[in-house]
Amino acid sequence: xxxxxxxxxxxxxxxxxxxxxxxxxxxxxxxxxxxxxxxxxxxxxxxxxxxxxxxxxxxxxxxxxxxxxxxxxxxxxxxxxxxxxxxxxxxxxxxxxxxxxxxxxxxxxxxxxxxxxxxxxxxxxxxxxxxxxxxxxxxxxxxxxxxxxxxxxxxxxxxxxxxxxxxxxxxxxxxxxxxxxxxxxxxxxxxxxxxxxxxxxx
Length: 202
Known about the structure:
It is built from 9 helices and 5 strands, in the order βββαββαααααααα. By secondary structure, the protein is an alpha+beta fold.
C-alpha cells in the first residue's frame, strides 16, 4: 500500500497530478479542493494516498489530509460507488458539508450531485450515517488571492471544472454568472466554484 507521497509536483491538472519522488513519477487522481491546495510545478508537496487495484489497472488517489482520504474510503466502501464517483462527490460538495449531509440523512441534497440518484443516495445514508461522525475534517484551504481581469478567466476555469463534474454547459455558465453578479468581493476560483455549486444544488 502506498499511503503517502512526498516530492516535486511535475504535472498539475484539475483531476490529476504527477509527483516526482526521487526520479519516479507517480500519477495521482485528485479532487478539486486538493487541486487548489497543490503548489505549482516544481514545488514540493505531500499527498496522503490510497491505492485501488482492479483487474486491468492500479490507480493512486491523493488528498491534502488523511481525514479527506478517510471520507473517500468510506464512500468507495458503499456498494455501487467507485473511486471516480467518490471523487466527483468530493469535488461537488465540501467534505465537511458532505459529512453533515450524510449524518442528517439529507437524501435530496445528495441527489443534486451528478451521478447520484435516489437509490444511491439512500444507500449512502443507510451505510454511512453512523460512520461519518468518526472523521474530523479540517475546513478551509489556503488559496492565494487573485485579481479579476476584464476577460474573467476565473469564470472560465470555474465553468470548466463544473463541466468536468458532469454539469451541462448552459447551467454551469448560468450558475457562475449568477455568483459573479451577486459577489461583493473579489473571488478566487475555488470560492467561485463553491458558490456556483451551491446555486446548482438549490
